[in-house]
Amino acid sequence: MSVHKEVKKVTTHQLQEMKRRGEKIAMLTAYDYTMAKIIDHAGIDVILVGDSASNVMAGHETTLPITLDQMIYHASSVIRAIDRALVVVDLPFGSYQGNSKEALTSAIKIMKESGAHAVKLEGGREIKDSIERILSAGIPVMGHLGLTPQSIYKFGTYTVRAKEEEEAQRLLADAKILEECGCFALVLEKIPAKLAAQVAKSISIPVIGIGAGGGVDGQVLVTHDMLGMTHEFSPRFLRRYLNLYESMTGAFEQYIKDVKSKDFPNENEQY
Question: CA end-to-end span of the chain, whole Å?
């Protein structure tokens, strides 16, 4: 009889302990049960149910179209697969900006209907009220600064942010505001490595980078990108650990060939 081993769940407190110890935090995205199960089993610390599902799962050009209910569907699927990882869910565009009451309603809906552990919001001082209101309901919040994809039309481009001194100073100040508000961690996207390291040193909460260099407290990548399932997207910060696009194409082509040549199914593959 196998003894069921108690799995130690990752908590927001543990992540802060990891930062203190200098242990790096590993985070990946997941949007469905099967993928989340594999990622969790591999021992990931944090799973982000990202609004990148809008691009990766739904084929939209930006993250803007995905709805709150769609995010909840993805988050619920992921939660059902998890034994260990901390699951953070993106509040989608339009569900929290400019209205802290709506932000709270959105966050509560995500937590109640999906069973997620925390939410993530993009932005600094301009969403301070929303963050404080969500935190007052006991919902953990992860911040997100630098390139904030939900603001794509404001920036007009996905290039590196905070290269100029003024924007860099604002980002540093925003990071401190998010820490003071009570965010348990912060994602920094596509900013100069030197600035990211400076942010990570100047605040006590974990800073997780994507295209923000190695001087931060952890890293996050989009799973479909790091597995090489997407092949048209090749930013400098992306390391491809597999080339699934090619392997999968090969498998599909072989299957088509086997069906058409009547090789599949063979004698052993039928009843």
Answer: 33
- Contact between 205 and 16 (Cβ < 8 Å): yes
Whether 266 and 233 share a structural domain:
no
Number of structural domains in the chain: 2
* 3-class SS string, 201-249: HHCCCCEEEECCCCCCCEEEECHHHHCCCCCCCCCCCCCCCCCHHHHHH
Judge whether 191 and 18 are in contact, CB under 8 Å: no
Q: How far is CA 113 from CA 74, 81, 220, in A?
A: 11, 15, 25
CA distance 175 to 123: 10
Q: What is the pTM of this model?
A: 0.95
Average pLDDT over every residue of 102-108: 98
Residues annotated as catalytic (active site), given as ranges: 189
